[in-house]
Amino acid sequence: MVSALLLLLASSGPLHDPTEPLAPPTLNTEPVSIHAPASAVPDFTLHAIFSGGHTSAIINNQRLVVGDTIQHYNVLRITASDVVLQGPKQTLTLTLFPSL
């Protein structure tokens, strides 16, 4: 029985010295690059359009009139059903009731 225990200890490999710290875990240190799309369009939500004496629209919870700017987009036109925004590279039309 003693010989079986000695045989088990001899075949299990080197023992770690408990007074020495463990080796730090290896980390993946490869660089990772994250790029946002250069032409990302802001997320606009048209909530309401007010017409009458002073036409305005609520976009992203902001009340806007023609000539105002929101996230680098200028309000060009407000009609009863949509708002036209002119951005740095494109024109967007926000529709109050989009077709399904």
How is the secondary structure organized here?
Blueprint: H1 2-11, E1 46-50, E2 56-59, E3 62-64, E4 69-70, E5 73-78, E6 82-86, E7 91-95
Antiparallel strand pairs: 1-2, 2-3, 4-5, 5-6, 6-7
Structure write-up:
This protein has about 100 residues and is mainly beta. It has a domain at about 65-100. The protein has one helix at about 1-10; strands at about 45-50, 55-60, 60-65, 70, 75-80, 80-85, 90-95. The strands form two sheets. A four-stranded antiparallel β-sheet has the order 4-5-6-7, with no helix packed on it. Strands 1-2-3 form a three-stranded antiparallel β-sheet, with no helix packed on it. Strand 4 (about 70) and strand 5 form a beta hairpin. The longest helix has 10 residues, at about 1-10. It is rod-shaped and about 100 Å long. The relative contact order is 0.14. It comes from Oceanisphaera avium. This is MSHA biogenesis protein MshK.
